[in-house]
Design a protein that fits this description.
Layout (H helix, E strand, L loop, with lengths): L16 H23 L38 E9 L14 H16 L5 E6 L3 H11 L3 E4 L15 E4 L3 E10 L18 E9 L5 E8 L5 H21 L4 E9 L7 H7 L5 E3 L9 E3 L18 E6 L4 E8 L16 E7 L2
Parallel strand pairs: 1-2, 7-8, 10-12
Antiparallel strand pairs: 1-13, 2-4, 3-4, 5-6, 6-7, 8-11, 9-11, 12-13
Helix pairs in contact: 2-3, 4-5
Pfam families: Exo_endo_phos
Keywords: Membrane, Transmembrane, Transmembrane helix
Protein name: Endonuclease/exonuclease/phosphatase domain-containing protein
Length: about 350
């Protein structure tokens, strides 16, 4: 009788030539991809994540507010960063929530170094700096920096400074002067209804490589005298025109930074920006989509009698040969809770025609 039991060998798949070819091809492909991944780590690409719909609309037009000087070639420009910062004087009797200068100083210097890191041509306009504070900031910034300015009172080192710091390795100081915002601007004096002497520090700087010449002014208007602030605005405009006209070089830009103690609806600010004043608020030259940070520049130390306000400004003289690229109001307090100042730093980047 023939054997009829199950024989598993009769059910084995017998390989065919096409199947052998497919298996061999897959093996070769796998070995090839593995070798390429080892030899060239960037060879294997992972699928990009699904796009996230950002609700913001970005304005990439870099000429939204073009320069007012016509017939200029912007193929060769000099990048420049302008900063204004009221650093709060070193009070012997700090108010509530105000830390002493020895606590605020290292944080301020670190912030200034961070803001200017990677920028070859920055200018820092400070306000309320006492002589000792000026030297502290100078030491903190280092030997590559220089500064100009004097105290607003009788002696060179008396009272608050409105100094200008600059990279001395990049800029050569051509001339500088301090004038008082009063009827007698050539000597220490108080103007009109001002509570204190008020000054403007002015400097002319030539770029060491391109010889581009700019004038920078740092000022601090009075906090009490409204009439003094109005006249101070008139004087500032007058000084800017005089200094620009008196230069032996072709001035590429006249830039002003300061604490104006004036909100945009204040008469002194209106005088600064009135038609025919020859001045523009740099913030107005930048689309909102390229403005960074806060809007208000004064925060106080939390005193109930003082509110926040926008009183620190950057101005540029018209007709301008600079293309303003960005504008921002940065922070003055971080996680440690220390208020570096009762003001925030205001920063703008621009490209100036050499």
């Amino acid at each position: 009788m023939a054997e009829t039991g199950f024989n598993p060998r009769t059910f084995l798949m017998r390989p065919t030539k096409p199947l052998i070819f497919l298996i061999a091809s897959a093996a070769i492909l796998g070995l090839t991809v593995s070798w390429l991944a080892i030899q060239y780590p960037g060879f294997i690409f992972y699928p990009a994540p699904a796009p996230i719909n950002c609700p913001l609309e970005f304005d990439n037009d870099t000429t939204a507010v073009p320069p007012t000087h016509v017939g200029m070639d912007y193929n060769e420009t000099l990048p420049l960063r302008l900063i204004t910062y009221n650093i709060r004087y070193a009070s012997k009797h700090p108010v509530a929530n105000e830390k002493p200068w020895d606590v605020r100083c290292p944080r301020l210097v670190t912030q200034l170094k961070f803001i200017t890191e990677g920028h070859d041509s920055p200018f820092i306009c400070l306000q309320e700096a006492l002589d000792s504070q000026v030297h502290d900031v100078q030491r903190g910034l280092g030997a590559g920096w220089g500064h100009i300015g004097r105290g607003r009172d009788k002696g060179e080192t008396d009272g608050e400074f409105s100094p200008i710091f600059y990279r001395s390795s990049t800029w050569s100081l051509t001339r500088y002067e301090t004038r008082w915002l009063s009827k007698t601007p050539d000597r220490p004096s108080k103007g009109w209804d001002a509570y204190y002497n008020r000054i403007v520090t002015m400097g002319e700087f030539a770029h060491r490589q391109t010889n581009t010449t700019v004038i920078v002014m740092s000022t601090h208007f009075d906090h009490m005298g409204a009439i003094a602030r109005e006249h101070s605005a008139d004087l500032l405009i007058k000084f800017a025109k005089e200094w620009s006209a008196a230069s032996e070089a072709e001035v590429s830009a006249v830039l002003i930074g300061g604490d104006f103690n004036s909100a945009p609806d204040d008469d002194s600010y209106r005088r600064m920006t009135a038609p025919g004043s020859g001045m523009s608020d740099i913030a107005d030259l930048v689309p909102d989509s390229r403005k960074y940070g806060n809007r208000l520049t004064y925060t106080s130390f939390g005193e109930p009698e003082y509110g926040s306000a926008r009183i620190d400004f950057l101005f540029i003289k018209e007709p301008r040969t600079a293309l303003v690229k960005s504008y921002g109001v940065l922070a003055n307090q971080f996680e440690d809770g220390v208020l570096i100042s009762d003001h925030r730093p205001v920063v703008a980047d621009m490209e100036v025609l050499p």
